[in-house]
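Human: I would love a firmer grasp of how sequence relates to backbone shape in proteins. Take your time, and here it is.
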Amino acid sequence: MTSCVIKIKNIKYRPMKVFVISSMMLCLSSSIWGQASSDDIVNHIENNMVEVKGGTFMMGQTHVVEDESKIITRVASSTIDDDSPRADELPAHRVTVSDFRICKYELTQEEWTAVMSSNPSYFRGVNVPLESAKWDEIQNFISRLNEMTGHKYRLPTEAEWEFAARGGNLSCDYRYSGSNNPDEVAWYAADSLEQMQPVGKKKPNELGLYDMSGNAFEWCNDWYGPYGEEHQIDPKGPERGTYHVLRGGSWKHSSNGLRVSFRTHIPTTHLNKCGFRLAEEVEKETVITTVSNKDNGIKQFYNLQGLLLAKKPQKGTYICKEWDREKQNWVIRKITAK
C-alpha cells in the first residue's frame, strides 16, 4: 500500500478544519479496518480487558482543600471549567470493590460498528472513541455484544470506575489518572485540537488503562446521587434517578474535569463528548463460611448495594465482611444463601 504524508503548515486549527483532516485520515486508513471481520474486532475487545484486583480506597475528593470557600456548591455541568473541587465529590468515604475486569481503552467506532452496523459519531476516525450514542443505544449495543460473545459485559459502576482510574491497588494517588501532569495522560482543551483523538496515544495509568482522564467522558452504570459517609461495599448507586453519572472529563474541557474524583451528569442524549468503556464481573466460586466470631473476629453483612444489614440474611445473595485476626485485614466474600 502506497504511503501518503500530509504536511500542514501555518493552519489555525478550527473544529471544521480539524474534522476535515480527520476524515481524510479515515479514508486513507479504511483499507486496514476493511480487512478485519466483526469476529476479529469483537475478539479485540476481549483481548483488551484488564483484570482489576479488588480493594478498599477513599472515594471522592481526597486532596486537602485549604480554602473551603472555593468548593463549588453547584453541581451542574456548567461548572466543569471552574478550577476548584465540587461539593458532590464530598464527603470522601471508604469503599470496597470486588475483583472486576475493565477495558484498557474507550470503546472505538470500529468496535461499535462491528456490532451495530452503524456509527452515530460526529468525530469520525480510526481508533477514535465512539460518541454521540444515547444511553438506550449503548445498552442495546452491550446486549448484542453479550449475545455474540457469551460474556456479561456492562458499564462500570461509579466506584469501579474511580478505583480503576486511581490505579487500583497500585495507586500512586495522582490528581489525574496516571499522572499529576494532565498533558501526559489526557486529551483536553489544551491539546485536543477541539476534537476526539485516537485511543491509547497518551501515557497509561498504573493499571495500564488509557484515557481515563480526558478524550471522551465515560458513562457509568449508576444513577447520579449524593455521597454518604458510611463505608460501602460494591455500591451500585441510587436505586432510581433522573441522570446517570459521567466520569473522566473530555476533549472539550479544562484540567479540572480530568481529576479522578470529578463527577457530573447530563441527560442521556446524543453528545459528541460522551463515550464509554466496558466492564465485567470476575466469576468466582461462591464461598460460605461457618467460622465463629470467637475463632476469627467481627462479621458484618451488607446487601449488594453496600448497605449495612442488621443481621445475617437467611436467603439471597449478600456480602460478608469478616476480620481475619491472623492476617490482620478484612476478608470480603459474596455469599448466596438458599
